[in-house]
Write a structure and sequence with these properties.
By secondary structure, this protein is α/β, with parallel strands linked by helices. It contains 14 helices and 13 strands.
């Protein structure tokens, strides 16, 4: 990395807590000073509400002041689900640019260690580049000791709604299950499901497996309907740990007039989910997850902190929040924007914050009016009816890590002599 770009990151990392004022003047106050730092977000899946909201959150956080300086530019690239192409885009992002910019960080979303590690290892082991790499929902282990891997807390996403099920219904129940073990987050949530079944003497009377693989929502609904019909006995609740599965399970219960007999517990939260949960007589009682815009903002902070040398953890779980039907109704929550206001903790206000990044909240995220990304390549069209599960790798092996808040900033003192 060019020394002036590194000095930019060092100069904004000058205070030891969020309560102190960062007073160091960033070198890029001079618009003519080069090169300007950029961060690349290299996406695996190009479409779906979750991913468009994720990108909006990344861009919203990037647009905030960093120290006293201008925001860092974010460039978004898509691989259309092609991991070979995604690896090529990661490599391209690490190369020198002829437009007066230099890459200081790369965020990858989805993909696998098998495809990415040769490229990521090459970048991280090249001392001339000094590029931080954060991988969100990557299938497999970190590629090296300084490679940051992160995902949502799948165990929490399963535990929170299932605890509500225990509170509401208790033990010795007849339960149904709709999931897909081809996806790492669903496999992770399945481990929690198994524990709750055993601990509470729940009898699983059916399992609609490979549920994400049906050709259409209607085909999935038919499979769920058949499982209910073949069972032939009352079911207390159905666990469907991805919102696409939750929504379609609710649709089946509505069509079968079973909404008063069978409840649904799910995962994830967005405008459609809120609409389904708050509809009159809805059986969807609880879910857990995060605002994807807030998750995107957290991912940007993660890359910026890693690029500055401040990030101490390399395996990070993004916290999940419980959202119940009763909370939505009692607080007149009809959209994700409403939920941001009623439940501000879903914006992750204390997660990976530091004094030199302008705090981001509901107004900064822009609600549904979040600004368009500065540099986003047009994604190829896709025929998929929805995006993949919130975390879409197929065998996530990353270990859990504690949430991070504010860290002591000493990198400038350590490296300043070297930069002179």
């Amino acid at each position: 990395m060019n020394s002036s770009a590194l000095l930019f990151l060092l100069s904004i990392a000058t205070a030891s807590s969020a309560n102190e004022v960062c007073t160091s003047a960033p070198p890029f106050d001079d618009a003519n000073k080069q090169p300007r730092p950029v961060i690349y977000a290299v996406m695996g899946i190009p479409t779906g509400v979750y991913f468009s909201e994720l990108i909006a959150g990344i861009q919203s956080q990037a647009s905030q002041k960093i120290g006293d300086s201008e925001a860092i530019e974010v460039r978004v690239r898509f691989s259309d689900g092609n991991e070979t192409k995604q690896a090529e885009l990661i490599e391209a992002a690490s190369q020198s640019h002829d437009d007066g910019t230099t890459t200081v960080g790369i965020l990858t979303v989805d993909g696998s260690a098998e495809k990415f590690c040769p490229v990521i290892d090459s970048i991280l082991n090249d001392a001339s580049k000094e590029i931080a790499i954060v991988s969100f929902d990557m299938d497999g282990d970190a590629c090296s000791s300084n490679h940051v891997v992160t995902t949502q807390d799948d165990a929490g996403m399963a535990t929170l709604p299932l605890e509500e099920a225990v509170s509401e219904f208790g033990q010795s129940l007849k339960v149904g299950y709709v999931s897909d073990m081809n996806y790492a987050p669903l496999k992770n949530r399945d481990e929690v499901w198994k524990t709750f079944k055993a601990d509470n003497n729940w009898t699983q009377v059916f399992f609609v497996e490979d549920a994400a693989g049906f050709s259409s929502a209607e085909a999935l609904q038919s499979a769920i309907q058949k499982a209910i019909d073949d069972n032939g006995m009352p079911i207390d609740f159905i666990y469907a740990p991805w919102d696409y599965l939750s929504v379609n399970t609710v649709k089946v219960l509505e069509d079968s007039n079973l909404t008063t007999e069978t409840a649904v517990y799910g995962a994830d939260i967005n405008d459609e989910d809120i609409s389904v949960m708050t509809a009159a007589g809805s059986p969807w009682k609880a879910t857990a997850g995060g605002n994807p815009r807030a998750i995107g903002a957290a991912l940007f902070r993660m890359v910026a902190l890693a690029a500055s040398g401040e990030l101490e953890e390399t395996q990070i779980k993004i916290p999940s929040t419980l959202v119940t039907q009763s909370f939505l109704l009692e607080n007149d929550v009809n959209t994700l924007d409403d939920l941001d206001v009623a439940m501000p903790e879903i914006l992750l206000p204390d997660f990976l914050q530091t004094c030199w990044i302008e705090p981001i909240g509901y107004d900064s995220l822009g609600g549904s009016q979040a600004s368009s990304p500065q540099d986003v390549e047009t994604a190829s069209p896709t025929q998929k009816p929805t995006s993949a599960p919130t975390t879409s790798a197929k065998d996530d092996k990353a270990s859990s890590a504690t949430s991070l808040a504010t860290f002591p900033l000493t990198l400038g003192l350590v490296l300043a002599p070297w930069l002179v």
